[in-house]
Structure formats: structure tokens, C-alpha cells
Amino acid sequence: MKYENEITVKDLTALLEKMKKRLSVSNHSEQTIVNYLRAVEYLCKYTGKTPQETEIDEVTDYLYQLQYHKFRAWRTIKIYVAGLRWFYTNMLDDEEFAFKIPYPKEEKDLPVIISRNELYKLFSACDNPKHKIMLMMVYASGLRRNELLNLKIEDIDTNDGKYRIRINRSKGNRDRYTILSKALLPQLREYYQNYQPQVYLFNGSKKGKPMTASGLRHALKMSVKKAGIKEINLHILRHCFASHALEDGMNIRTLQEILGHKSLKTTMIYLHVSEVPLLKGFSPFDNWEKKP
User: Fold this and answer.
1) Which residues contact 160 (CB under 8 A, 6 or more apart)?
2) Max CA separation in the chain (angstroms)
């Protein structure tokens, strides 16, 4: 798609840099900044225009092709819409245009989980001790990918008999604490002694710099392949933590705080994929023989 006054790379770069600065001083999280910038960048590349020159029908066409041609999930499109709405509201002071951009209808899909036996196979198949402890921590503490990658050594708190991990500026720009597994702590200490990380708990190719998301994805992919289990992404390990924690008796409000969910409704979805609702359930057919 070409236009006579197609936006130049230089103009787009300047536009995104200005947007990035505004988002940063507005105290948005790093991941939110990345997502919002991507939403505006892709729109400009799709239309060949600046957002000021773009009509609402063109924005709709852009979102349509994301959904039906690039097969983006509704959650991804929702993030893009949020980014576009933020841009038009805060950068162009055009709230009326912003709220013409439709949010996708929420799809009630259940989180995917794997069994404890499959988790055991996955962890056992990981030959690299560093990668193994990283995958285990995602499951053991219910971490998001970026929460794991951004962990600093000082975020591990074992003082005064505590077993917890501090999560800084996570989703929604909120801080919280999550569980540090007592069973995993000895392996974490062994990893620390062997690798001697600096600043970040899991350094990348350079000490003092975090491991990249692509590096972690590759580590998971290789372990999944060797374990011979179905293909999964890292977030499924967090889903497994939530489901298994409920099955083992964790209070759902406690789980909400640990996961960092703003709404209890978000946490309650794990009741549908765990065995908790069946623990005290029974079939009336089982009582037939007891009847006179």
C-alpha cells in the first residue's frame, strides 16, 4: 500500500521517540512502552501515513488485517488498541477519535496447563543448569517472563526466615512479593555459587546485563523437544503454578496477590482448569445402593 506523502523512516523514528519520552515520564512500565510504540509503528507502516492523517476506517482496516490475516490473538489486539487510544488521547489531544477505535470482544478461553508429570519431564530434560533453574523458578513462583528476566540479586529475600521474591514494576507498574520455594532454594544457591551473576540474577552473554527473552524462549523450546511433551510457551508454567497451588489448598485471595492480578475475577479462571471444584464433589449415582 503506497501513498503520495508516505511517512519517511526519519519522521516515524522522531514520532516514536517523542512518544517514548512521554510514556517514560508518565511512569509506564517498560513492556507497556514497547507494546504501545509497536502499535503506532505498525499502524504507520500499514497506512503509510502519520496518525494525524489517518482516518478511522483505516485504523479499523489495520486492526482487521491483524486479526484475520496475521491471526493475532484478541489479547494482542487489545494491547494495540490501548496503545493507539493512548497516542490519540495524549499525543494528539483527540479523545473523540481515540474512543472510536473499537476494543475486540473478550474471548473466554481457558488457560492451558500441563500435568505435574510433564513438568518433571521438562525440568529433567534441561541439561543447562542455568536454564533449568530459570524454568523451575517460573513454575515455582508463578513468574511472568519479564519478571524472571528482570530479577536482580537483591530481589531474593531470605532474611529473618523469609522465603520471598520482590517483583518490581511488573504489569500495571505495580510492585509485589511472590513465593520463593524452600525446596528450590538450595539449587538456586548452587547456581549462584557456580555462575557468580552480577546485578541481574540471570545474566545474558555479558555479566551485569539480563538474559534476553529470545534466549529464554530457545532454552524452553530445546527442553520441550528433548522431553517429548507438547509444545508450550513460558506463560503456561505460570498457569501451572496457579492451578496446582489451588489444588494444594492455597486460598484464592492469596493466589491473587502472589500472581499480581488486579481483579479476583482474573484469578478465578484457574478454578476451571484445576481439580479443586471436584475435590468434594460426588455423583448421586454412587449413593443409590445406600437407599432402601
Assistant:
1) none
2) 87
